[in-house]
Structures are given as structure tokens and as C-alpha cells.
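Reviewer 2 asked us to include a model.

Predict the structure of this chain.
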Amino acid sequence: MPLFSFKALTTSGSVETGEIDASDRPQALRNLERKGLKPVKVSQIDSLTAAQKKKKPQAKSRGKVSEAEANSDEMLKLKRPEVVMFTEELADMLAAGLQLEPALKSMENRQQSGNLKDVSQRVRQLVRDGNNFSYALRRVSPSFGPLYCSLAAAGEASGALDTILNRQAHYLKTIQELQNKIILALIYPAFLITVGAGVGVIFVTQLIPQLITLIEKTPGGKIPGGVKFLMAITGFFADWGLILGLILVAALFIFKAWKDQEENKPTWDEAKLQIPIVGKVVENRFYVQFLETMSNLVANGLPLLRALELSRDATGNLYLRGNMDQVIDLVGDGRSLSRSLVQVGEFPPVLIDMVSVGEQTGRLDHALARAAERYDKELSNSIARITALIMPTVLISLALLVGTMAYLMITAIFQTISNMGGAGV
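Predicted model (C-alpha cells):
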């Protein structure tokens, strides 16, 4: 019976390769579909090659434990800069024409020692043993994460692994730069907050009580209502602060337990999209990732439905993934992508119009790439707005806090002097 080699997608979106016996190619396709696999490539192996392969030990399947897996009981952790370096170096080598295993071998032979070298070695061993790249990443290090591994699987399926790795490196560097910007932007506000808090404590615990004592001893002295209100709040927190702190900690634990439950994750992911400013960043990041991934997959010849499934698997937000499920169902029923996006009702009109133009011109991949560039600019603008708002917000808050207490003290002093003058008359 003829032997066929195949590359197929599993239900989880990962790539599986192997061989299968069948009377002809259509029968091989049907056999793969019965196993729950979605064929990407199926080709017949000639009789001489098949006979040689049968004599050799079978390559270990994705689900079996290889020698590399047996030697890698402890997963290695990488810092974000190391993940970025690994991604950039591997993408550059693949773009230069190297195959995956030689590229990993070159990274394994790097002079600098450390976890990055060990990760390259373990990943290469798993790939050499017949496992796909995305599965090897999951086995070796948790630092890559589900999103990274899903994108790697999409790159393997489309033949554009170098392009997708470059995109992922750009995304990781953007996140790292954002974190650095936020840290730098928070250094001065943190100093101001510390000083402001110290001034507030001095006001509330030392100056205002002394002022109240002075007013009470002054003939005709009268404590202003604002000072009374401030001292009442201070007394309340002094008496109930510990209990309130425990309630807050308990509430945080309850909230974390609630959002970690599988049935509540889509609700929490939807709520994150409603957070002012931050929600826009999350939404724009999804559009950039979705459009870039779709553009790469479609440009490399994957069917639209398959590309949508892989893009869905690379989406971390469960609420947005639910929207993608609806789009996949509609496209599977024969509707166009633009009409499916309209019917779901959660995608912006500008994105839908650009997709529609791409469908009409027959250049959907170019339209998706242009839309990705548009939302990438919006994402950069959203991030810039966040960093620009940090300093004014902190300064205004401190000005209100310190200014209010200073105003109350000055008002109390002037009122006391006024009462003393009235009593002297």
C-alpha cells in the first residue's frame, strides 16, 4: 500500500507531521480527517524511500517523550531581554536562508553561556527528534508563553516563521520599551508621592492637632468645619485602618479567585477592554496582532478559514477569542470575511472597509497588512498618551492634597486671629 507523508493541524492549532498508509491521496486525506487532523500538505513517498524509512526507527511523534525531553525535567526561565534576543537572532538566521535546526545549532554554539544557550540546545534536540518548534518551546521554557507558541505554530504552518518571529520580537521590544518608559516616568512622581505623603502625615499628626489645641485655648476660638471634617476622617482611619486593610486584602483574594475561574475569564477579559485608556491599548494590540498574523498566513497560501483558526489560537483575550469563533463559524458557512466581521458587530467599520477592499481587489493580504500598520500607529499613540498622562495626574493629585490641608490650616489661623481681635474689642 502506498505511503504518504503529511503535515496537518491538530484541534489545538499545533502542527503535526508524519506518515500514513492509504490506497491513494484522497483516502489519505479522509484518514487524517477521521483522526481529527486538518491536512495542510499530503504527498506520496516513492517505494524506495518508503522501504528505507521502514527499516529506520520511526521518528518520535509529538506526544512521545524523547531523549531531550527526558533530560529536561526542569524548565528553564528566560528574562524578557533574553526572549527578545533569542527571537531576533533566530528570525535573522531563518530570513538568511538557514533551516531551523542549523540555526538553533548556531545559537547553541554561542560563546556567551547561560540559559539562552541551554534553551537553544534543548529546543534543537527536540526539533531534531521530530517535534515541531512550537511544541519544543512549550517543553523547554515557560517564558515564551502560550501566545508566543501559538504564533510560532502559525509560522510553521504558513512557512513564514521568520516573518512572524520578527513581528513577535518587535512586539516584545515594544512592551519592554513601554515598561522602561513607565518606570522612568514614575521615578519622579514616586518621589513626589513619598514627599507628599510625608507632608500629609506631618500636617495631620502634628500641625493640625497643635492648631486645634491653640484654637480651643483661645477665647472665642472656633474650629473651622473643614478642619473638623479632616480630623474626623483621620480619626476614622486611625481606629479602623487595620480592619479596612484586612477587608481590602480579602477582597483582592476573592477577586483573584473569581477571575481565575475558567467561566469568569471571558467576563474579566471583556471588562479589561472597558478600562479607560488601558482598554484601548489592549484592543489595538489585538487588532495589530490579528491583522499581521492573518496577512502573513494568507500571503503564504493558507486557506482563509485555516488562517482564521490559527489567528484565533494566538489571541490571549478570551472575549476577543469568542468573537473570532463567531467569525470562523460564519466564514465556514460560506460568508466572506468582511460580511462575517459586520455580522459579529464587534469590529470597527474602518477595519471592515479595508478588508472589503482587499477582497474586491483580490489582494487581501496587502489590505490586512495596511490595516495592521494603521492600528500599529494607533497603538503607539495610545501608549504615548498613557506615559504623557502619568506626570500631570500625580502632580494634580499632590497639589490637591497638600493644597487642601494648607488652605484649611491658613483658614483656621486667620479665623483664630479674627476671633482674638473681636474678643479684644
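The longest helix spans residues 364-424. The beta strands are 3-9, 15-21, 38-45. We have added this to the supplementary material.
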